DNA sequence: ACGATGGTAGTACGGCCGTGTCACAACCGT
DNA sequence: ACGGTTGTGACACGGCCGTACTACCATCGT
């Protein structure tokens, strides 16, 4: 078989296989064999790329961070002048499609499901920090567009916004989710309105 | 050994053992043997009370729902006249001590960690519903005390408040938590203030 | 063209898992 | 006092786990 494969690409495929298993069968179903089967490779082959299970979980989490960062970067680079665009930027942070739902489920399942894994804890902190900074950036844009009352404590409001976004995300995740996407958008819209003059 | 033991009491002990294992070692470490050891009984003995692992997880989740409901009932029964009391009622919903942290970790780990378990999905819906009703009740009390603008959509605000509470709870949960309890209370206080006239 | 290189797949091993079974010990009603 | 009931603990079983090892093979550099 081919002498050289793209390791990064293979790692991403395996990480996405982990995502799907976590979303479909839960964290407990994540085993080397299941992931290999889900990704369509043999278990022995998987071990050449990710030698241990901990590496597997770390790779899954790293890809979450990477994808989320890339998505936000793509959004934030564009000039964002009006209210609808700010709302769209925030909506981007919600798990409203399959990929983002998979990512968030993975993120939460790993963070809550395996404490004592230092790498995962570090990556969680990275992600939380990015969320807060993203909310802060969105607020700065909104402020520049004159959408915000001038007397707001932007640091506190960024934190509050991040909390709202994460809370919405949590309630959007099925199964057993109790929130419709439209309701989530309504909450976000109402929150932004409450920050206005 | 004694012919009659209190089954409910034993179930609660075992459920709390599950909580501790989830918080300390993660969901993957929850096995019949580990739980039995944590609770100080033999595995065979455990099986007389909770025959299968699914029963074990269900019992753990049921105790979460039960304790949370009892705690809220104890708070809500008291007359709640002023702003500080409303804030205290909401703070009650946050994982600011060991027991509530254990409960929330269990709740989230189970909901996110084992999809396809119908009983857990049902219990999650129960809990989410209770949270929303609790927030609605708190808002009603605040409104009766004249702490709210009269033009608010209380249903939407209850949802937003529930989202804030859950978001705060999520960020308060260690390890890797990025939120201090005082910051969480500040967010809650700011949120309540933003609802005022 | 042909070894060297590096990915692949199959197998093996020790360990823990969930669950079933069963003999035994402690308490109850009679 | 004693037989029945009920909780207990120990073991057995089949299965899946993570990991290690080792032939095999397609490609690449020479």
Structure description:
2 copies of one chain form a homodimer. The first copy, chain A, is mostly helical and 197 residues long. The first copy, chain A, has a single domain, classed as Tetracycline Repressor, domain 2, CATH 1.10.357.10. The first copy, chain A, contains 9 helices and no strands. Chain A has helices at 7-25, 32-39, 43-49, 53-76, 83-91, 98-113, 118-144, 154-172, 181-195. In chain A, helix 4 crosses helix 6. Chain A is elongated, with a radius of gyration of 19 Å. Chain A starts with 6 loop residues before the first helix and ends with a helix. The interface between A and B is large, with 48 and 48 residues. Chain A binds a DNA duplex (30 and 30 nucleotides) through helix 3.
CATH homolog superfamily of chain A: Tetracycline Repressor, domain 2
In what range is the share of β-strand residues of chain A? under 5%
CATH topology of chain A, what is it called? Answer: Tetracycline Repressor, domain 2
Overall helicity of chain A: over 70%
> Spans of chain A with pLDDT under 50 lasting ≥5 residues?
none
CATH architecture of chain A: Orthogonal Bundle
Helical element count of chain A?
9
List descriptors.
homodimer; 73% helix; Tetracycline Repressor, domain 2; DNA-binding; 9 helices; 197 residues; mainly alpha
């Amino acid at each position: 078989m081919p002498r050289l494969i793209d390791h990064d690409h293979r790692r991403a495929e395996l990480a996405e296989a982990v995502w799907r298993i976590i979303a479909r069968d839960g964290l407990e179903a994540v085993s080397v064999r299941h992931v290999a089967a889900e990704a369509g490779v043999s278990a022995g082959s998987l071990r050449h790329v990710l030698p241990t299970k901990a590496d597997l979980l770390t790779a899954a989490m790293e890809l979450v961070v990477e994808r989320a960062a890339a998505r936000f970067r793509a959004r934030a680079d564009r000039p964002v002048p009006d209210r609808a665009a700010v709302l769209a930027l925030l909506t981007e942070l919600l798990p409203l499609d399959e990929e983002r739902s998979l990512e968030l489920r993975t993120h939460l399942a790993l963070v809550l499901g395996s404490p004592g894994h230092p790498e995962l804890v570090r990556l969680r902190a990275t992600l939380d920090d990015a969320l807060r900074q993203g909310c802060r950036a969105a607020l700065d844009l909104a402020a520049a567009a004159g959408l915000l009352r001038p007397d707001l404590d932007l640091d506190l409001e960024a934190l509050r916004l991040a909390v709202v976004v994460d809370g919405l995300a949590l309630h959007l995740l099925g199964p057993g989710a109790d929130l419709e996407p439209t309701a989530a958008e309504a909450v976000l819209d109402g929150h932004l309105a409450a920050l206005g003059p």
